[in-house]
Amino acid sequence: MAAKSDGAAAAAGPGPEGAAGGARSGAGGRGEAAAAAAEGPGVTGAGGSGPRYELRDCCWVLCALLVFFSDGATDLWLAASYYLQGQRTYFGLTLLFVLLPSLVVQLLSFRWFVYDYSEPEGAPGPAVSTKDSGTGGPSISTKDSATASRTKEGSPQLGPGPEPSSASAYRRRCCRLCVWLLQTLVHLLQLGQVWRYLRALYLGLQSRWRGERLRRHFYWRMLFESADVSMLRLLETFLRSAPQLVLQLSLLVQRGSEPDLLPALSTSASLVSLAWTLASYQKVLRDSRDDKRPLSYKGAVAQVLWHLFTIAARSLAFALFASVYKLYFGIFIVAHWCVMTFWVIQGETDFCMSKWEEIIYNMVVGIIYIFCWFNVKEGRSRRRMALYYCIVLLENAALTGFWYSSRNFSTDFRSLILVCVVASSFALGIFFMCVYYCLLHPNGPMLGPQAPGCICPESPGPCGPPADAVTSPPRSLPRTTGAERDGASVGGERAGTPTPPVFQVRPGLPPTPVARPLRTEGPVIRIDLPRKKYPAWDAHFIDRRLRKTILALEYASPATPRLQYRSVGISQELLEYETTV
Asked: Between 326-346 and 355-371, two packed helices, what is the crossing angle to 10 degrees?
């Protein structure tokens, strides 16, 4: 049996899969994604001891909370100061950049909560049952409540037992009502992210204190919660902190020799929030994937400094230009956003589960590209990043030069200092970027030998099952097209390449085709979806339905299962044996 991501039962045969880690895998699928638990080779994941939640992880979350509160408190304090001074325009703009992004993020967070906490109609939740599989290993499946009671006679049932009594059902309804009221109040007070930070901290500490099986369960949930809050914070900071930073810097430049302490504090808090959120997002993203090495805290601090100085130079150049040429600054921002959004769309990102969500995501990334670099495409990003920073350097120089040309060269020494600040801040940011890539990158030094991207304790070979290790046929073989029969480009081959004859028998595999022993212990959750490539999140981190299914299967399994995605390459390899009618 296979379990769809929405909980409905669906029959499916075994298929070729690609490996993805359990405790550090990502996930998400649409309604067509099926998850089946089985036992088989070619899987990596949480089969061993797995990562542990440490004290420095707890300190990192507490620092993130401190950055969040300092950013919001200084902005509200500054808005109140503008109101008391009678500067209603600045008060309205400052408050708008605080409330509007916060409302958007709270609505998204509450929508996630509603889906995560809602139950299927007529059932208290997805029923989970286990039975012995044909291969002798545990097989796990989720079913609708209507079919959950029809388990095999004699099989252990981990789903709901007998009907609960009226007293227990009443207590359960009261608890659910209290949770709904609490979450509604939290999100009305604009504290949804704070709740998620505290919940991630609680789940991490529980994974540290509990036994082995519950430790892995809490660690999975902690990763899910950390991914949610990092995505929410990334959206909020570039909708709130980035425009707030440019606005307050512009006001500071206009005031000239009378700077105020409160706008300076608000500007510093917004700048730190932007840099911290970017580094935290990258760290959580790498921690969630087993095919990438985790980002160390030294590397995260280097990323914070890198983004801190580059965003500071960028924002100061914006503020200088906007203080003189307000209309042209708006035109420049819109044009830069359009160009960067088109660049991202042209790169064909694979982040979301639908086309329109992907377009919205690309538009948000276009906003991020106004201020800093953000990797959204798999592969070596050095050329793209070098091109981006060359464009940013030219734009910063042009914006600062236009502003400086409007000043008095002979008497205005302060203008020259601001130009030097822009140049030196950008140079410092590039320096820390080089420090990160040359010394602290998870894959090793950029100029030296680099370690493989994924973690394979058994051997330095590639991650996942080898290409020749086909353990089962695909569920269905697509029909061969006429272009493939005529020798057109198929799977990267040039046109005119002769296709092998039908039913060609290949030479047998060598006695030891594998570079490392395949791990076959423990259950495996097989997801009938190709795995998304880094730097995208894995599918079960994006799709809430698949996440609920995986958590139900993981909690019902006696051992923590590992996740296994479908491998596209193996299906293409088997197409050579297909016949065409």
From this structure: 130
Position 431, amino acid: F
Please give the backbone phi and psi of residue 304, each rounded to the nearest 5 degrees, phi first.
-60, -45
Residue 563 near residue 541 (C-beta atoms within 8 A): no
The model's pLDDT over 466-489, given as tens digits with 9 standing for 90+, comes to 333 333 333 333 444 444 444 444
Output DSSP code: residue 211: -
From CA 473, how far away is CA 56, in angstroms rounded?
A: 45
Percent composition of the chain: helix, strand, coil (DSSP 3-state, to 5): 55, 5, 40
Instruction: Report the length, in residues, of the chain.
Output: 581
Question: Which ranges in 323-381 belong to alpha helices (H)?
Answer: 326-346, 355-371
φ, ψ of residue 21 in degrees (nearest 5): -70, 160
Average pLDDT of the segment spanning 568-575: 48
Distance CA 431, CA 381 (A): 17
Adjacent-strand bridge partners of 395 = none
Are 159 and 152 within 8 A, CB to CB?
no
- Total-model pTM: 0.75
CA distance 488 to 469: 27
Tell me how far apart the alpha carbons of residues 194 and 110 are, in angstroms, rounded to a whole number: 13
- Which one, of 17, 30, 23, lies nearest residue 355 by Cα? 30
Return the sign of the alpha-carbon dihedral for residues 352, 357, 361, 366: positive
468 contacts 509 by C-beta, under 8 angstroms: yes
- Phi/psi region, residue 537 (left: phi>0; alpha: psi -120 to 50; beta: rest), is beta
Does the pLDDT value for residue 46 go beyond 60? Answer: no
State the CB neighbour count (10 A cutoff) for residue 170.
11
Q: How far apart are the first and last CA of the chain?
A: 31
DSSP string, 415-470: HHHHHHHHHHHHHHHHHHHHHIIIII-TT--SSSPPPPSS--SS-SS-SSS-TT--
pLDDT for the residue numbered 146: 34
The Cα 488–Cα 499 span in angstroms is 9
For 541, the 3-state DSSP assignment is: coil
